[in-house]
DNA sequence: AGGCAAGAGTTGTATATACAAGTTGCGATC
DNA sequence: GATCGCAACTTGTATATACAACTCTTGCCT
C-alpha cells in the first residue's frame, strides 16, 4: 500500500536505474532516517553514489517530487516534503484549513485520549487481528463558539513506526497524524448520516440534522495505521474539494 | 481556469522551449482539432517542427502525460487522453462506476431534457450574466429497481465549444459531459442535506433521510460550462474516494 | 561591525547520441 | 489467400556535456 518506486509490473525485468534510486530514497524516508524537511542527496552526490549520469539521478528526484514526496528548490537542494505540501489529503484537510484561512475563530478541544477496546466496525476498518492496542482520541472543533465538527481517531499502535513510537506517550495521535512520513497513503469514504445521540449532544444539533461523515484510513506498508472519522452537521459545514488538473 | 502549459510566474521571462510545445499541443486539443484518442505528433515530428532536441520534445509530451492530458504507448505513439482515463473526476464518477463494476443491475432513466430558466442558485454557480441559454436534464439512476441517485445537469450552451455545439441537438448534455475535452477542469462541493419534497418523491425516500449532495462545476477557459448536482440517499449509497499517492 | 562580492554548490534547461523495447504494417513466402 | 518475419517507426532508458539561474556561505573591504 505504500508508494512503490517502481513502475514495472510483476515481471522479473531488471529494474531501471532510476527506480533503484527512487527506492533507495523512499526507504530512507520510510525508516525515519530522513525526516520531513531533511535534505536528500543532491543530483551530483547520487550520480557518484550510484555511478549513473546526472540525468538519471535527476529523474529519480524529479519523479518523487511530482509524487509530492520531495520538494526541490533551485540553488538550495532537494528536501523531504512536509505533510502540508501534499495535496492528496486535501479534501479532508480543507475542512480545518478553510476555517483558519477565513479568519474565523477556530478552536479545538481535546476530549479523550486513551487506549480503548474498539467496536466491530472499527476493528474491520483497522483490519485488526490479534487484539492490537488501539489508541483513541476525540477532538471537537469550534468556529465562533459553535461546535462544527467532531474528529474521532483510532490509531493502531503496533503499526506506528518505531522512531515515532518512542515518544508516543508525549505526542497525541493528532500530532502523530500530522507528522506522519510523506509516504503514507490514505483512502476516504464519504457518507451522509444522521448522527448518533451521543454525537448530536457533543455537536449540539437536533437528531434530524443530516451530517457529513468522512472516514479516512491511513495506510503504511504494513496495513491500516489509523482511522479518522470526521462528523460535521450539514447546516454548519460543507466539504469543498477542488480538484484541478 | 484551463490548464496552463507554463509553470512560470507572471514575470516576462522567455518561456522555456518545452512549455511552448506544451502550449501548442494544448491549443490543438482545446480547439477540438485533436479530439480524444487522436494521435499527437511523435517526438521526432516535434523535434523537426520546433527545431529542438528529442529530449526537449519528449519533456513536453511527458509532462502532459503526467497531467493526464495525453496517453503514451511504447511503439504506438502518443494520444489525447480519454475522459475515462482521467483520475481527477474520480470521486463523482465512482458513484456510477462502482455500481456497474459490481455487476449490479444499473439502469438510468432520462426524465427531462429541455432549455429552462434557472434559479438564482444555479445562475450564481454557472456565473451567468446575460441570460445565456441553459440546457437542463435529469437522470435517475437505479440499482436493482431502487432509485439510488438523481443527477441534475445544467449546461451553459454558450460555453460549449463550437465543434461540439454543431451536433448538440442530437447529443444529450450527459453525453456532452462524458465527451468533453481532456483540458476541462472541475471543482466539487460535497454536502449533507435533507432532500426537497420533489427529490424525495423521485428517489422514493422519507423526508428525514440524509442525502449526500455533490455539486460539480465544470470549467473551460471561458468560465463555468456546466453544473451537475448529484443527490444520493445516505442509506442507499456511499461515495468512496480513494486517493492514493 | 556591516555590507558587498566572489565562489562553490545546486537545480533548471537544452543538446546530441546510443541502444533497448514495443507496435504496426508491408511484403515475401508458403 | 493466409501467415510469418522483417523493417520502419515510436517510446523508454541512459550517458555526457554545456550553460543558465538561483542559494548560501565565506571572506574581503570599507
TrEMBL record, chains A, B:
InterPro entries in UniProt: Bact_HTH_transcr_reg (IPR050679), Chorismate_lyase_/UTRA_dom_sf (IPR028978), DeoR_HTH (IPR001034), His_ut_repres (IPR010248), Tscrpt_reg_HTH_GntR (IPR000524), UTRA (IPR011663), WH-like_DNA-bd_sf (IPR036388), WH_DNA-bd_sf (IPR036390)
Record-linked Gene3D superfamilies: Chorismate lyase-like (3.40.1410.10), Winged helix-like DNA-binding domain superfamily/Winged helix DNA-binding domain (1.10.10.10)
The UniProt record lists the keyword Nucleotide-binding: no
Pathway(s) per entry: Amino-acid degradation; L-histidine degradation into L-glutamate [regulation]
Gene Ontology biological-process annotations: L-histidine metabolic process; negative regulation of DNA-templated transcription
Keyword DNA-binding: yes
Keyword line: DNA-binding, Histidine metabolism, Repressor, Transcription, Transcription regulation
One family name in Pfam for this protein: GntR
GO molecular function: DNA binding; DNA-binding transcription factor activity
Domain named HTH gntR-type: residues: 15-83
Function statement: Repressor which binds to the hutP region in the histidine utilization (hut) operon. It blocks the expression of all the hut genes in the absence of inducer.
PANTHER family, alphabetized: MANNOSYL-D-GLYCERATE TRANSPORT/METABOLISM SYSTEM REPRESSOR MNGR-RELATED, TRANSCRIPTIONAL REGULATOR PHNF-RELATED
Protein name: Histidine utilization repressor
Amino acid at each position: 500500500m505504500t508508494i512503490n518506486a517502481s513502475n514495472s509490473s510483476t515481471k522479473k525485468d531488471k529494474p531501471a536505474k532510476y527506480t533503484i534510486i527512487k527506492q533507495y530514497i523512499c526507504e530512507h524516508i520510510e525508516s525515519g532516517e530522513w525526516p520531513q524537511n531533511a535534505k536528500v542527496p543532491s543530483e551530483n552526490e547520487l550520480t557518484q553514489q550510484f555511478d549513473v549520469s546526472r540525468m538519471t539521478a535527476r529523474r529519480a528526484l524529479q519523479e518523487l517530487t511530482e509524487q509530492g514526496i520531495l520538494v526541490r528548490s533551485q540553488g538550495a537542494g532537494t528536501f523531504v516534503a512536509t505533510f502540508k505540501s501534499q495535496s492528496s489529503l486535501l479534501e479532508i484537510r480543507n475542512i480545518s484549513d478553510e476555517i483558519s484561512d477565513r479568519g474565523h475563530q477556530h478552536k479545538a478541544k481535546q476530549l479523550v485520549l486513551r487506549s480503548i477496546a474498539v467496536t466491530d466496525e472499527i476493528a474491520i476498518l483497522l483490519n485488526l487481528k490479534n487484539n492490537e492496542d488501539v489508541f483513541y482520541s476525540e477532538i471537537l472543533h469550534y468556529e465562533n463558539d459553535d461546535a462544527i465538527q467532531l474528529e474521532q481517531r483510532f490509531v493502531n499502535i503496533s503499526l506506528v513506526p518505531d522512531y515515532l513510537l518512542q515518544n508516543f506517550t508525549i505526542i497525541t495521535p493528532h500530532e502523530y497524524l500530522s507528522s506522519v512520513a510523506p509516504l503514507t497513503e490514505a483512502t476516504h469514504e464519504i457518507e451522509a448520516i444522521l448522527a448518533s445521540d451521543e454525537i448530536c449532544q457533543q455537536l449540539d444539533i437536533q437528531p434530524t440534522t443530516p451530517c457529513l461523515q468522512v472516514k479516512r484510513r491511513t495506510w503504511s506498508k504494513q496495513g491500516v495505521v489509523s482511522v479518522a472519522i470526521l462528523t460535521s452537521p450539514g447546516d454548519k459545514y460543507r466539504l469543498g474539494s477542488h480538484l484541478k488538473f
